Amino acid sequence: MAEYKLLKKEKNARRGEFKTVHGTIQTPVFMNVGTLAAIKGAVSSMDLKEIGCQVELSNTYHLHLRPGDNIVRDMGGLHKFMNWDRPILTDSGGFQVFSLAGMRKIKEEGVHFSSHIDGKKIFMGPEESMQIQNNLASTIAMAFDECIPNPSTREYVIDSVARTTRWLERCKTEMDRLNSLPETINKDQLLFGINQGGTYEDIRIEHAKTITKMNLDGYAIGGLAVGESHEEMYKVIDAVVPHLPEDKPIYLMGVGLPSNILEAVERGVDFFDCVLPARNGRHGHVFTKEGKINLLNAKYEKDSKPIDEGCQCPACKNYTRAYIRHLFKAKEMLALRLCVLHNLYFYNKLMEDIRNAIDNDNFHNFKAEKLEQWNGRG
């Protein structure tokens, strides 16, 4: 079912289309993160359509804990449950192996966790991750991997990457089995593998070559934006992308700032996700043509301008900086909602502008112009 079509290239920047059972994704794309099948900040699936979201991203580990993936399955899968008819990507729970380091134990069969909610013992391995994602019935399932902290010793990284490869093979086998079952909701569920290797370029390249041979539906670069510098991250992307297939989408996990996205698109990345725009919005930090501003600053107290002049998001079309600042000061939930809507719209519109720039052979100039406008504040 899945088909990635490369429509255009400007040097390494790629403009494509990715056909899925839940619709065609125009790439490069930014996925809007709804960890628990909801965007934090009181943003609904209807809002997501209004602000131009193409793909929603939810979290396997968190949905397994609540409400429980069996409940989501019984409700008809994630699309029906949250009333969203466009593509959904579910991450595998692998990142929680990294972020819950104090509450887990990694073994060959998988990872033993303690729930961050109530301390209950949980086990998740490749098969369990695929089964949970099968119950969620997402469009794209991510393989279960270990996200390695940076820096890590070379020896640890080599062992971890080898295990991630073995886990990927198990994920593929289990997904093939699950997709063949009559009771499976989405028999066209896609599997993306994840490239790991810390900041060791040779390990990264070797791993990219290995997983490319598995002929998966897409490939992610994982284990970045976890402690290394932006320069180190760009070096890893430069090293890895040439060794991933050109006819499959490439996804840079958990990145990032608008400037990071421009740099990664220039290096051949198609998919992005990050909690950053929504998290920033909930704290009054909003993205504009001139870079990021903090609406809580006193200078916006009587500012009658919208957050970003010319912006067509619901917040900017209807409200002033002064009013939204007042909402924050009064602890009104509407403040969070408006700023999250604005930031996600900003990101979705940025991706649309990037696609148009590549279509018109103008991405190089577009990138330079944006970085200069943001002046290090983006």
Q: Would you mind describing this structure in some detail?
A:
The protein has 378 residues and is α/β, with parallel strands linked by helices. The protein has two domains: 3-274, Alpha-Beta Barrel (TIM Barrel), CATH 3.20.20.105; 284-372, no CATH class. 42% of the residues lie in helices and 20% in strands. It has 15 helices and 16 strands. It has helices at residues 45-50, 60-65, 69-74, 78-82, 94-99, 126-136, 154-179, 201-212, 230-240, 258-266, 276-282, 314-318, 321-329, 333-359, 363-374, and strands at 3-10, 13-20, 23-27, 29-33, 56-59, 88-91, 104-107, 110-114, 121-124, 140-142, 190-195, 218-221, 250-252, 271-273, 285-288, 291-294. The longest helix is centred in the last third of the chain and has 27 residues, at 333-359.
Task: Output the keywords.
16 strands; 42% helix; eight-stranded parallel β-barrel; 378 residues; 15 helices; tRNA-guanosine(34) queuine transglycosylase activity; TIM Barrel; three-stranded antiparallel beta sheet; EC 2.4.2.29; glycosyltransferase; alpha/beta; queuosine biosynthesis; 2 domains
